[in-house]
Amino acid sequence: xxxxxxxxxxxxxxxxxxxxxxxxxxxxxxxxxxxxxxxxxxxxxxxxxxxxxxxxxxxxxxxxxxxxxxxxxxxxxxxxxxxxxxxxxxxxxxxxxxxxxxxxxxxxxxxxxxxxxxxxxxxxxxxxxxxxxxxxxxxxxxxxxxxxxxxxxxxxxxxxxxxxxxxxxxxxxxxxxxxxxxxxxxxxxxxxxxxxxxxxxxxxxxxxxxxxxxxxxxxxxxxxxxxxxxxxxxxxxxxxxxxxxxxxxxxxxxxxxxxxxxxxxxxxxxxxxxxxxxxxxxxxxxxxxxxxxxxxxxxxxxxxxxxxxxxxxxxxxxxxxxxxxxxxxxxxxxxxxxxxxxxxxxxxxxxxxxxxxxxxxxxxxxxxxxxxxxxxxxxxxxxxxxxxxxxxxxxxxxxxxxxxxxxxxxxxxxxxxxxxxxxxxxxxxxxxxxxxxxxxxxxxxxxxxxxxxxxxxxxxxxxxxxxxxxxxxxxxxxxxxxxxxxxxxxxxxxxxxxxxxxxxxxxxxxxxxxxxxxxxxxxxxxxxxxxxxxxxxxxxxxxxxxxxxxxxxxxxxxxxxxxxxxxxxxxxxxxxxxxxxxxxxxxxxxxxxxxxx
Length: 597
Description:
With about 600 residues, this protein is of the alpha/beta class. The chain folds into 4 domains: about 5-90, Arginyl tRNA synthetase N-terminal domain (Gyrase A, domain 2, 2-Layer Sandwich); about 165-275, no CATH class; about 275-345 and about 365-375, no CATH class; about 405-590, Isoleucyl-tRNA Synthetase, Domain 1 (Orthogonal Bundle), CATH 1.10.730.10. Helix content is about 55%, strand content about 10%. It has 21 helices and 14 strands. The chain has helices spanning about 5-20, 45-50, 55-70, 90-100, 135-150, 165-180, 185-190, 190-215, 220-225, 230-240, 245-270, 280-295, 330-345, 360-370, 405-425, 430-450, 465, 475-495, 510-535, 535-555, 565-590, and strands spanning about 30, 40-45, 75-80, 85-90, 115-120, 155-160, 275-280, 300, 310, 320-325, 350-355, 380-385, 390, 460. The strands form 4 sheets. Strands 7-6-5-11-12 form a 5-stranded parallel β-sheet, with helices on both faces. Strands 1-2-4-3 form a 4-stranded antiparallel β-sheet. The longest helix is centred in the middle third of the chain and has 25 residues, at about 190-215.
């Protein structure tokens, strides 16, 4: 039972004893006491005034007196207008600290074998270019949400849907065939995804030149875009692929293989993985079959040019293309097929798509179409829609002036982490192996924390240099605090100072020490709320508050030099519990914390 539930129960008992059961028709409101007032928890009295026909001040005094005399949980109280502020006794806080110290998993729900299954899809890259900054935010959010949902008792399957077919893939393939001269990742020294991305850009450049030349000859721009020779060839290649042309399929497998090797290297750098990977090339035919069945059943309709559409005007939307006139699939068709395959593979209770907010309409339509097709889980899918991310100047290094490459970003973070750590002396006395490990942790911790601390639904600007700061609301600040605590605990061990459960439950604690324990007790609720809202930022900013308060405590109070052995033991237990929560909280964000720094 958390503190809010404890106070609710005590106040309900007080109301029943003082005024009778009729008071239960009025909702009770309990909240954390605002910092400008004395107390830990506040009971809002206004809802009780009408039924009790007393002033809020009188009600507050009567309830406060009763609680003070009947419960050891309450130490003191004060009434400010319509608010009863309750100060919690030290014994309650120390008992809670002992529970936290002894029960390492106090903050999470342990799933049983009958737990519901949540599938979370994230990353979902195209195999025609490298992962970019937008993918970084996507992957970090998807991974973190998966960890948070597991901590809330769900069974989780992390999935990736690879967009490995379609006209965009054929553009890279055609450009390589025309301009590549047999170039490979080995011969070029480029990562496979970077090499394929290079040819996607070359296609775009050559295609735009062809369109320009046709427009100069008098064509209108729309017709020029459709009729440009390169686009015509790419469309033919797509049809050949769908018809299983051996040569086209072989080139497709080769180039996609290059890309997968590149993607996997980037995923490893980010510390990201998946339980199951789906490929559109393996699910799009399922989608086509479902669409054709929907057409036969009158759910969809065919236009004179042979294309298949869904009419969603009754739902307040428009008409949606499902199959092109040449019979090739679009993304919506593929997503329908993938959804069907997934629900055949797993007993999914909740399906979550981690996809940017530019696809809000797409997932609104997907949900409606799945429901129209008779899939009972259509309406229950969750589109976790997140905002866009960019850099202060709009780019770091790009191929077309806008795309921020994920590998370039990670390399820049590593360089900045090394320079900053060396400048501040954070690596002094560390072995070369420790230095490399710390630099990696700091770089990725800075990147992940800076992105995840922002409400995911908001657009954000990522500033690499600002993220690697050992002060303020940053990953390195939290990592350094963990290392600082671990250093204190090592010194205690070196000085043969043992510590364990707090036995003296009547210690005189400072307000700062009480507040730190209170923060620790709130961690499970923060994890629960982060799961309900799909919002890792709640955990990130909780950790910052905890670390900020601990650093003030560390500055103002002695730990190892404290002469009162009971108080010293308490402060070591408190520090150890805080280090454990920091470590677990950061792990939910996919961030490692160093033991020394």
